[in-house]
Every structure is written in structure tokens, then in C-alpha cells.
Amino acid sequence: MAKLWGGRFSKNTNELVDAFNASIDFDKRLYNEDIRGSIAHANMLAKCGIIPAEDGEKIVAGLKEILKDIEAGNFSFEVALEDIHMNVEARLTERIGQAGARLHTARSRNDQVALDMHMYMKKEVAEIAELLINFEKALLTVAKKHDRTLMPGYTHLQRAQPITFAHHLLAYFNMLQRDFRRLLGVWEGADMMPLGAGAIAGTTFPIDRHDVAVQLNFGKVYCNSMDAVSDRDYVIEFLSFASMLMMHMSRLSEEVCLWSSTEFGFIELDDAFATGSSMMPQKKNPDIAELVRGKTGRVYGHLQAMLVTAKGLPLTYNKDLQEDKEGFFDAVDTIKFSLAVYTDMIMTMTVNVDKMQQAVSKDFSNATDLADYLVRKGLPFRQAHEVVGKCVAYAILNNKFLPEISLEEYKDFSELFEADLLEALKPENCVAARKSYGGPAFTENEKQFAIGEEVVAAQEKTLAELQAKL
Ligand code: ARG
């Protein structure tokens, strides 16, 4: 097939070179953005008198037909035409003749591919924002149901202090809020219009880049042509957002795996969200959580790959930059899939409230509360810590937990102990008393639920604004 850039060549390209060079297999995903971008470009060229108005009309009509064909599956993408840009342009010229050959005036594939990627990223950011909000809502819903469900909180994976399941889930809800904020930062980087930068140094034609930006709903226009064609910061920002989001889901996955083990028994995944073993009939495995944890490594890999690809590149466009796509597309697919499946998995899991309560009543996670009790009776905390440490050692030696030691025995450790110490040891009282701002007290979490609802409502408003700017 004749190359659109074939003029200075006297030989056909080697077949291996065609296959190696081509990006059509993966960049055909940009067809919609490529065509809408070309329509805006053609409109602008006609408005500015750079191409005849009737050619502009023919181009726009022809591109709309091609869009329909692609959507109907009636378009064959040719490897010999390298990428989505030349596939569309070649087909256009085949259809409408001479007018099609005017489309690429004042444009290069370097600014064209940058435009497509920016538009595509904005669309994906909006879709991901919606999935992220749904996941946050699921966490809030389950947390609210378990506002009174006591469980041990862990440090070093050792039982530390009593908390509620709600407080634990709200911690993830807060991480996701930061992810949402970072996603809005990704939008900022994507919402900048590069077309008109040409191959590197703009164009001699009297184009109107701001008109293209308005047609395509871009908030800003790149103000340096060289930056416009070589910038991939927005891809790296996306991948770093994606990596952190996956890190959060991976940490939750680790907990889901632990909690659903027989050893913990805190949750049971719904049958529809777990899998079995081909050999061991009894197995019910948390594959979804494991896969999300596993896919996190792959998304980190895409971030690392893009950082390394970009680090040695001289300005401006270099073909290395074609490598920005597969990792980015894969990260998009991975986080969208992970968010969607995770939301439903969390909503449908069974929480074994009794198991959690049992765990927190048969352990030493109330030891800090006993020390705090002595502090309230006047003992300095460091000494109270020492006294309770001795009580714990004594209890372990006698195969007991703190509430099972008698008051007389306690008196041997400190005269300050009174009968009311038993109240201080009850896990629900331990939680209720932790009223410090951001603490797990029931009353505190109630406030956090209300704030959480407001946050989600504000995010939904922001999402609607983004959708209106696509
Ligand atoms: N397929 C290319 C990419 O994704 C498009 C830009 C090609 N530009 C060029 N001068 N060869 O980067």
C-alpha cells in the first residue's frame, strides 16, 4: 500500500519494518478522538480560509461516514498504513478525493496523536471518576451497617486496640478521596490542547488554535509548540494516580484475603465473587482480591516503563513516545475492571460480626485502656504502662485475659485499681471513649459518615462538570 509519506523513498518498506513500526493494533482505540479532532481541525481550516469551505464540508461529512463505518465494524485497519491517523486519512481521501488530501494542512501526526491522547484521557478520567465514586459509596454503605461492629485493630499484624469495622473501612474511604483528588489533577494535565504545534515548530498558516480548543471543549492550549508535541507528563500523572489507587486496593485485598481465611473468619465472600479449586473440593478462594493485588505490580510496571522511556529523550517527538500507549491503555482497563468488580464484591460479602466481637473480647487489645484508666486516677502514663505491662505478663502466665483477674490481684500491682476497672476494659467502652478527632468512637464515626456523604455529593457535582466538558 502506498505510504502517505512515500515521496522521497524509492523502495517499499521491508515487511518486518511495517509490522514493527505499526501502532494500529493498539491505537485504533483512539478512532473516535482522532476523527473528532480532525473534524475540529477541518472546520478551523475552512473558517480561517486555509482550505475552501466546500472542501471543509466534504471532509467533515466524509469523516462522519468513516466514524459510522468503524462503529458498525465495516472498516478494515491496515498495518501498512501504520497508525490510526493514516488509516483514517487514507480512507477519507479514497472516498472524497482531493479534498481529503487537504486535511493534513498545518498539522503533523505529532500534534495529532497528542490531541487524541489528551481527548481520550479526559473521557477515561470521567469514567474512572464515576467508578471511584461508586466504590467509595460501597465502602460508606458497608461501614454504616457496621458502625457498632467491634473488631481488633492491628499494628505489626498483632492485635493493638479495639476499633469498629466501620472505622477500618472509613480509612480506605479516606484513601480513595485522595485518589479522587489526584484524578482531578490528571484531568488538569489532560485538559490542554496541543494541536497546531505541527511537527515541532507550529505552522506558517494563519490557524486558530483557540478555536479548535473551544470546539473540543479544552480549557487550555499549550503555549509552546515543542512542549506540546513532546509532553507525556499527563500520561505519567495518570499512571502514578493509577499506581496509588491500585496500591490502596491491593492493601485492602491483602486484608480481604486474611479476613476470609479460616484463621480470621471475619468475612465470607459471596459465592458469586469467589472461586473454587479444581482438586480440593472444600476450597473457596478470594481470587478477585488476589488478582487486584497481583495486577498492582503490572500497573506499577507501566509507570516505571513510561518514566524510563521519557528520561533520555531529546526534544521533541521521538518514536519512543509511541510506547506511551499500551501501558496506559492497559492501566485504564485494569483499574476500571478492578474498581467495578471490587465494588460489588465489597457490597455482597458477609461480615461475621460475632467472629470479630469474639476476637476483640479474647485478647489484650484493651491494655492501653487499662493504662489510661490508671492515668485518670493520677498515675503518670509511663508508670501506668509499666504496671499494666506487668498485669499482662501475669495474666498470660495464669492463662487469663485482663477482665478475668480479680481486684485483689490487681491491687498487688497498684493501689489505684478499683472495681470500676472492669468497665474500662469492655471493648465497646474502649471504642466509645476514643473520642479524639478522627478516633474510632461511635460518635466520631457518625460525624465522619455525614462528612463522607457531603464529600461524595461534591464529587458527584464535580463529575457532572467534567462530563459536561468532554
Ligand atoms: N503512531 C505514532 C505515535 O503513536 C504517531 C505519531 C507518529 N509521528 C511520526 N513522526 N512518526 O506516536
Throw out a few tags for this protein.
binds arginine, 470 residues, two-stranded antiparallel sheet, 19 helices, Fumarase C, Chain B, domain 1, Fumarase C, Chain A, domain 2, 4% strand, elongated
Strand order of the largest sheet: 1-2
Output the number of helix runs.
19
Distance between the termini: 36 Å
State the order of secondary-structure elements, H for helix, E for strand: HHHHHHEEHEHEHHEHHEHHHHHHH
CATH topology name of one domain: Fumarase C, Chain A, domain 2
What CATH architecture of one domain would you give?
Up-down Bundle
Main beta sheet strand tally, sense and closure: 2 strands, antiparallel
Instruction: Report the average pLDDT across residues.
Output: 97
Overall geometric form: elongated
> Strand tally, please?
6
Contiguous runs where pLDDT drops below 50 for at least 5 residues: none
Work out the radius of gyration. 30 Å
Q: CATH top level of one domain?
A: Mainly Alpha
* Category by helix and strand content: mainly alpha
- Kindly estimate the percentage of residues that lie in beta strands according to DSSP: under 5%
